[in-house]
Structures are given as structure tokens and as C-alpha cells.
Amino acid sequence: MSPPLDAGDAEAVRSAIGFARRAQGTADVPVGAVVFAPDGRLLAGAHNAREQLGDPTAHAEILALRAAAREYGDGWRLEGCTLAVSVEPCTMCAGAIVLARVARLVFGAWEPRTGAVGSLWDVVRDRRLNHRPEVIGGVLARECSALLEEFFAGQRDATGSFE
């Protein structure tokens, strides 16, 4: 169960959606992520760039966390920061969220096939780990899901299979 929405959660996810849209027209899945400092200042934003960079770790969350850590100035720790993502993070990204000590995770669409924040796994709330961020899921879920549906519909050829 998610805690109640903070007044800025929808705006944070809207910002992530804006970054996701930057991937449109590329071969990358349109997922966006943004990191906000405790004072609400935008530290970094990114979209998926695996195909563009030829890097299997170039998920939006990883790219945004890396850039935010450089900007925030506390080494790799993003304590007190909020990460907003257009889609539920995968296991790699969920692990990075825990390791970066992100305080809050807000995301849009649930991802039943690969989600690691409650759908398939729940990495971020595993009691065996030494950090567990607050999690708010399903924010602007329809809008976030629509981006993915549009992308994957475009990936199918006339026979209904993936290219």
C-alpha cells in the first residue's frame, strides 16, 4: 500500500514523463526519471538510452541517479532526495535506488513483467536491506502507460509480431 500522495508527486511524475518523451522517435523505450533535492530543486533528469549508448545499464533511473549524485555533492548518497520515474523500476534500478539512499520513490505505471517495486519483486522494501525508501506508485499511471503502449504498438509489424 502506498502512502498518501505529496502535493508535488503528480508534478514530479509529469516531469519524468517530459524526459520520457525525449526518447520518442528513437529505438529506446520511453521511460523518464528525475531526481529532486530535499528543497525541491531539480538535480537531474534522463530518459532510457540503452540503444542510443549501446549500454545495458543506461536506464533512465541509472542515468538520472548518476547525474544527480554529481550535482548533489554528497558523493554517491542522495539522502533526502526524491526520484520520480514514469514506470516502476526494474531490479537493477531498484537496487541502485536502495544503494543511493534515495528517500522517496514516486512512479507512474506499474510494470507487471519486470517491476521490482511491488509487481514482480519488491527490492526496495526488502527488510534485509539497510535502506528502504518511501514508495508511492501509480501516479498518473494511465498517462505513463499510454507512452509505453504507443511505443510498443509502433514496434509491431503488420503481422502483429515484434520487428
Strand portion, in percent?
15-25%
| Sheet with the most strands, sense and barrel status | 5 strands, mixed
CATH class: Alpha Beta
Name the CATH architecture: 3-Layer(aba) Sandwich
Put simply, the count of helices is 5
Q: What's the CATH topology name?
A: Cytidine Deaminase, domain 2
Low-pLDDT residue spans:
none
Structural class: alpha/beta
**How many individual β-strands?**
5
Helix content: 25-40%
Number of domains: 1
Question: CATH homologous superfamily?
Answer: Cytidine Deaminase, domain 2
End-to-end C-alpha gap: 38 Å
Apparent shape: globular
Element pattern in H and E: HEEHHEHEEH
Strand ordering within the main sheet:
2-1-3-4-5
Rg to the nearest angstrom? 15 Å
Q: Roughly what is the average pLDDT, rounded to an integer?
A: 92
Note the main attributes of this structure.
163 residues, alpha/beta, Cytidine Deaminase, domain 2, five-stranded mixed sheet, metal-binding, tRNA_aden_deaminase, tRNA-specific adenosine deaminase, Cytidine_deaminase-like, zinc
